[in-house]
Design brief:
Helix content: 25-40%
Order of helices and strands: EHHEEHEHEHEHEHEE
Largest sheet: 9 strands, mixed
Low-confidence stretches: none
Length: 245
């Protein structure tokens, strides 16, 4: 299935009846079901396939861009500037847009929360680049230690104005974070994404051994006037290598 690297664009998962029927599933279950459908449809395209696209989404082709709100969440496990830029650029291209209204970075690594700040500064420098050229509006981070978030906020040229926490692993919002977000007009949001949106064993079960997830994006497109979720999908870069970088 995978020769060296594979870029998957699921397209609008809301258009896949098989995935839509499992409305109660979490993000991981939804993603797994969607990947199985997309990869099954892609069979027969040859072993050298490097890009797999889901069905083209035409549901919003007659809607003006100003009437849409695009939100994106990027899942990465390495502070790799090149990879993050590739992920963002692929999102702009796939969504046929020059701007994204809301971006959240979910950085999961083996580093301890106290040691993550240097890596987060690298990641945030990329985010700032895109904000400065008006490609991103609201920007933030997910599942970050309170002290680390405050230190990053104080260091950053462009301040994060969103922070997400997972109430499944953090039953109560840390009082210090709650106070800081209120004082600095930061959106404090909750989410229910699994700790690992695509676990390694699942990844290998779908794509084979010696593979790793370089980055993954989940996007959502809402109609502003009605607040309706019109499109939702995933973009992911899978690499095959004997040695993970």
């Amino acid at each position: 299935m995978l020769s060296h690297t594979l870029l998957v664009n699921t397209g609008n998962v809301l258009a896949l009846s098989e995935a839509r029927q499992k409305a109660s599933q979490n993000s991981t279950d939804e993603l797994i079901e969607t990947l199985k459908i997309i990869l099954n449809d892609a069979q027969g395209k040859g072993d050298d396939t490097t890009v797999i696209n889901g069905k083209r989404d035409t549901s919003l082709q007659d809607v003006e861009r100003k009437d849409l709100k695009i939100t994106v969440k990027v899942f990465i496990s390495l502070p790799d500037i090149v990879s993050l830029k590739e992920a963002l650029d692929q999102a702009f291209e796939a969504l046929c847009t020059d701007t994204i209204e809301s971006l959240v970075i979910a950085y999961k690594s083996a580093e301890s929360p106290e040691d993550m700040l240097p890596s987060l500064k690298k990641i945030w420098s990329v985010v700032e680049e895109y904000v400065k050229v008006d490609k991103l509006s609201s920007v933030g981070l997910s599942d970050i230690n309170t002290n680390t978030f405050i230190e990053l906020f104080q260091w950053a040229d462009i301040k994060p104005n969103i922070v997400q926490i997972n109430l499944a692993t953090c039953c109560v919002v840390p009082p210090a974070l709650q106070e800081f977000t209120k004082e600095n007009d930061i959106q404090l949001l909750t989410h229910s994404d699994p700790t690992q949106i695509l676990p390694q064993e699942v990844l290998e079960n779908i794509f084979g051994t010696a593979v790793y997830l370089q980055w993954l994006i989940r996007y959502q497109i809402h109609l502003k006037c009605r607040g309706i979720l019109s499109s939702k999908g995933y973009l992911l870069r899978i690499n095959k290598s004997n040695i993970k970088p």
